[in-house]
Design goal:
mainly alpha, two-stranded antiparallel ribbon, 13 helices, disordered N terminus, disordered C terminus
Length: 372
């Protein structure tokens, strides 16, 4: 359940290091050092333009990763200026996307409630037909439906999220997609593409272990989270949390000058974990590999926040601690204040949607075509 940053050249966290020939070195010095100047491939130039200039003040300020990266070792240029004005668009995107997420969730819930009665009668008819129709042995569809119905609502909700993460993970394995994956599925405030990666990077994992750990934690907390928030509100919180945690990561990188790409669902998952732990502080939790040690959810949340705060202040490089901390704080804030401030005040928006929906039906049905 970690949002990892992708490590940079010279990092000790991986056995594969990449030597970059600094273009600022004079040619004579390069020859004396035994370096042979290699021709620059156009593909590398495109990757460098997409990622933007990388921070190269010192090895400590470079980017980190959990697994060898796909061909972004070409970037080596002076560090970009800490222009906080570049964060205006990401900030507006964060606010706008969060508002749209909760608005769409409210409409989704409204439509779900309207169709619930019809769905009930459809299920009754389907059950009756199932009893009348002779049973088929080994019916794969029936087995799949039985498995699906055995899942909790929360597990069914996050199944789609896990599937998207798996597809994106497979896309990282396709060499022809590497440049697009770096551009759109890693978040980096030094990149030319700033807004869309804030969301897409939350579905992106380059390491299988990274993805498996994140998805396991999401699956474990899905039942409690969806029972607490409901399916529609949960999806709004999860998607908004991914963007909010990415923006906090942008702020931290811009303030410290440690630029570099990050990816992973940990920021959004930290919001889910923090929300559940805040709402149910006495719940018992355990570590995956140490199930014999249990602790309360409140203590676990305190330990996680303290660790990520220390990691951000001390400049630990293995994970994007700013994104972790931003996600955890967003989850705590939403349970304590955001639910009352946002979700419980959705009625005016839902009424507006109802009026627009009704007006549309009335317009298509003539003078007497008004519907309730």
């Amino acid at each position: 359940m970690f949002l990892c940053s992708l490590p940079a050249e010279g990092s000790e966290t991986t056995e594969r290091s990449f030597k970059v020939l600094d273009p600022r070195w004079p040619h004579s010095l390069q020859q004396r050092c035994g370096f042979k100047k290699a021709s620059r491939k156009p593909e590398g130039k495109k990757v460098e333009e997409e990622l933007g200039p990388a921070h190269t003040e010192s090895p400590e300020g470079a980017v980190q990763r959990r697994a060898p990266p796909p061909h972004w070792e070409q970037q080596a240029s002076p560090s970009p200026p800490r222009a906080f004005g570049r964060l205006v668009r990401p900030f507006l995107f964060t606010v706008g996307f969060t508002g749209c997420s909760f608005g769409a969730a409210a409409v989704w819930q409204y439509e779900s409630l309207k169709s619930r009665v019809q769905s009930y009668f459809d299920e009754v008819r389907a059950d009756w037909l199932e009893k009348v129709r002779p049973q088929k042995r080994g019916d794969l569809r029936k087995e799949v439906n039985h498995w699906w119905n055995s899942l909790s609502e929360g597990q069914r909700t996050v199944t789609g999220i896990i599937a998207v993460n798996a597809v994106v993970f497979l896309c990282w394995r396709v060499p022809s997609l590497q440049r697009s994956m770096v551009k759109y599925f890693t978040s980096n405030p030094a990149s030319k593409t700033l807004c869309s990666p804030m969301l897409l990077s939350t579905f992106s994992h380059f390491s299988f272990f990274h993805m498996a750990a994140n998805m396991y934690v999401l699956w474990s907390f899905s039942t409690s989270a969806v029972s607490m928030l409901g399916r529609e509100q949960f999806m709004a919180v999860y998607l908004s949390a991914g963007v909010v945690s990415s923006f906090v990561s942008y702020l931290s990188k811009m303030a410290t000058g440690r630029f570099g790409p990050s990816l992973g669902a940990s920021g959004a998952i930290m919001t889910v974990l923090a929300a559940v732990c805040t709402k149910m502080p006495e719940a018992k939790l355990a570590i995956i590999f140490l199930p014999m040690f249990t602790f309360t959810a409140a203590n676990a949340l305190k330990a996680i926040v303290a660790m990520d705060t220390a990691g951000m202040v001390l400049g630990w490089k293995f994970f994007d601690h700013a994104a972790h901390l931003g996600g955890a704080l967003f989850g705590i804030w939403y349970v304590l204040f955001g639910h009352e401030l946002i979700w419980k005040n959705r009625e005016p928006f839902v009424k507006l949607w109802h009026d627009l929906r009704t007006r549309g039906r009335g317009g298509g049905g003539g003078a007497g075509g008004g519907a309730v």
